[in-house]
Design brief:
- There is one protein chain.
- This protein is about 25% helix and about 30% strand.
- With about 80 residues, it is an alpha+beta fold.
- Strands 2-1-4-3 form a 4-stranded mixed sheet.
- It is globular and about 35 Å long.
Length: about 80
Amino acid sequence: MPQVVLRFVFISEAEKPVVTLKVPDDMLFQEAFVLAAKRQNKDATVLSATFPGGSPIPGGTVKEIAERSTNIHVIDPSIVG
């Protein structure tokens, strides 16, 4: 099964802001997002994920998202405001 490396950049984290995951390309993006959030001890339900530049991520599989970008920006609205 092919795998994809996603790089989650937690914009609001000063220390250790990047989580890199190697996941199956048929995994739902939301599952990978939750895994990345757990690595940062964050609650994925309060975070938002965007492509670099701010475009929202519509969901789908990791492969579908990676075709557009393997870098994902994660924002915690409670910190950013």
